[in-house]
Amino acid sequence: MNKKAKRRLVVVGGIVIIAMLVIVAIAGSGGAASSLSIGDVLGGGYEGKKVQVSGSVVADSISSEGSTAVFEIAPEEGDASEELQVSYDGALPATFGAGVVAICTGTVQDGVLNATEMVTKCPSKYESAEGSLTVKGLLDQGDAMVGKDTKICGYVRGDIQAVDADYRFTIESQGATLNVRYDGGLDDAIVDGTAVVVSGALGEDGTFTASEQPAIDEAVSE
Q1: What separation in angstroms does the CA of 55 have from each of 48, 51, 97, 112?
Q2: Which of 27, 68, 115, 149 is the right S-S partner for 104, CB 3.0 to 4.6 Å?
Q3: pLDDT in tens, 93-137
């Protein structure tokens, strides 16, 4: 190999090494999120660092500040008194709500997790519609059913709304429709056309407020 070829090989080799270093630097600057527990974050030492934390959304902790949702999460198991405040600037998943497990990724600042990504998961719930009323059957009884604990069944109509909307979804059966309000998490299998069973009570405003997670009636199909 002559000197010219050797110099060319050295130059090419140097370029390859520099390119590899640049790739590593870029990957490092992206900062893969560390998966931590709520206790880890509350213990300190992660200020300004990118982390991923999961926990159950605490009931009555959800509020909004403009387009930002603020809420608290607690361990699914363990010390329920450990609560981490999360600030999420983005569209809330339709499944989001109190009790749902939220997997949040973001940066810790002043003890608050400023999340830029969030994934939610809610356990599936199935229930028989036996003994429940249709929407028409409920509404036919009028004011006599306002405030009374009952169970209704029907099909979801339209899109699932976010937890901060006036209602979460519309249910229809026997030609009658009713808006359902619920501030908890929803199974992501509940979509337009899903047969559901909902426990709760009819309000004076004509909206049905669910008292527990709406269930899927798997024995029913359109």
Answers
A1: 20, 13, 12, 14
A2: 115
A3: 888 999 999 999 999 999 999 999 999 988 899 999 999 999 999
Distance CA 184, CA 46 (A): 30
Q: How far is CA 191 from CA 92, 125, 206, in A?
A: 16, 14, 22
Length of the chain: 222
List Cα–Cα distances, 57 to 95, 132, 143, 147, 165, in angstroms: 12, 29, 34, 27, 17
pTM over 0.85: no
Strand partners, 184: 98
State both tokens at 83.
């609560």
